[in-house]
């Protein structure tokens, strides 16, 4: 872009697939990546500059930009191509794509505030059944923008307020809302270069403060934040004022970065030598890293084989070449593991990007990356959008994990975007896993990726022995299988006696899966979702794990008003309770979403495991991946079949991956590991191959099934989701959409239309859900078909019904 570009291409935050053109402000040169406020209809919205034009590309009159929000770009110009591709592939508005990519709190837009006038205070009355917002308006005299947005969606309430405005009872003001992320500033102290303290008659507190300031500023004489000085010396705050008045120091407000780490991560020393397999892998990677060309690798290494050291060595080579590194993990829990290794090796060159950070911390990390102050980025799925100008290496750890797929809004697949970004940047991409996805491994066999294999653990440690306990063969008085078989109970007791640690895995949280009425057989269900509420004993709540709805566990049956309710099923909370009874002297801890609501809680639990303050750790899939617990010698899987009954063609693959990953936590130290898997279906191929650590056996079985059924990687899928608050309208729209799709498919023979049908989770968050699945071996035809289908708009967009596309769906629930 140049100063001659009078017109700017802008992607606006609105449901528009195409960008718009606006007139550039006079005297200001804006670059791609800058954020602006622009008029759209009768409102103001955020926009992102994509490119400039010297001449008007449109035939109509062009509106000017209202306000420049960022004089400097929030992302490099090279990422515009990435955003355009994402918008096209996932058929999602370009401005919304960029909004998704950026840290939260950077999207100002028009809003409203409503104020009660003096006349309104006397003339507007309230009734017992008046809406909550009216009570707020009368009590507080105003309604904030968030409340106004909710009211404005209701036509009747909006009309009422507009009538009150016309009568002078309320005042409605337009405001700009939504911008909440800002740089943090603090007052900093700097020594004046020509000041002579000897000439001044200084107090002891002033002398001590000056000495402390010199120490903290160092030879570089960097500004020192006032809170830091006060932390070291309580009298510094008052002394700083008098020192500034005497001209010995300068106090000024400067921007500072919020620390995302909290306490410093654990230190991991670099190994003196690499294993033979690690050396072979690096011999392949180093030429690729030096080539500055797109080179994709699938690193298939068993658990404990040292994949993390490969990541660190590859990052070191990339930094030496002057390029940046992006490291992706599927969950926040795993960032704590990798960040410690990378921080030990690379220090403050590391930045973090994940949802566990506050808005301010995430905004600061983004600025550090954009300003080229951090050359290594570690984060979860959304880190793929990190504003790195020249990424030379992109690492996707646990590449098989379904958490890389965003399940709402922009439904992108982070792993696939990592490969795309590496393609556009001329970078090396490493997809690492002990259990690669079937699709990625097939790409490797087809030479799309280069497969690198690490079949042995570091220091030649053996993989753990795996035993299967058939729960069907265990006879109990109740007829139900026990939570803990005799074999698992004995093994836990022996492990405790030996002073070793154990992991107990169940991928289901809570105490009981449901509360069932003994009188009528009805379970207590969520009013907004077609889901039974899960009992959480510790909080005495029945909780919906989808929308968060909660009620007291001491409740009545909605069907018959009976109090005769009984908990059915089990989760990690019940396992913790039962193990406490079996082993009252054992030190227990539980790691799931309920016990690790924030990063601090998660780190505290992991630290206790590493410090051997925990004997038995119970958890969900949060304990299965990436963790290195050298003193864990026993792993127990309570119910291996939990995921096999899901209506998902990947159910077998995912069961194998979970079992293999949790199996890999055992025997990573000096002692061998043992794994006991309890199963009702021990002959299922996903369980039998996991017992043998046989990934290739699992792959061969899965790939044959998918070839027969024509599922990915042999075809591509697009799932069209139809949602709304009225079940009849959703069903009617889904059927109408399917009829149009089938008529279109007669002309497009390569596209198969499946459905419509209610989604397995037929109601979530108060909205009924149907879906229509499109399948084809021709990706271009499939995308054109879905786009034309939604553009046809032949009566299936009923009032209140929303249609959304999920390209390459991972979750069919």
Write a concise synopsis of the structure shown:
With 813 residues, the chain is of the alpha/beta class. The protein is built from 23 helices and 33 strands. The strands form 8 sheets. A 7-stranded parallel sheet has the order 14-15-13-16-17-12-18, with helices on both faces. Strands 19-29-28-20-27-26 form a 6-stranded parallel sheet, sandwiched between helices. It has a 5-stranded antiparallel sheet with strand order 2-1-4-3-5.
Number of strands: 33
Catalogue the unreliable spans: none
Report the helical percentage: 25-40%
Strand content: 15-25%
Biggest sheet character: 7 strands, parallel
First-residue to last-residue Cα separation? 46 Å
**Rg value:** 30 Å
List keywords for this structure.
alpha/beta, 24% strand, 7-stranded parallel sheet, 6-stranded parallel sheet, globular, 813 residues
Task: Describe the 3D structure.
The chain is globular. By secondary structure, the chain is of the alpha/beta class. 33% of the residues lie in helices and 24% in strands. Strands 14-15-13-16-17-12-18 form a seven-stranded parallel β-sheet, with helices on both faces. The chain contains 23 helices and 33 strands. The relative contact order is 0.07. Helix 7 crosses helix 9 and helix 10 runs parallel beside helix 11. Strand 23 and strand 24 form a beta hairpin. The longest helix has 19 residues. The mean pLDDT is 90.
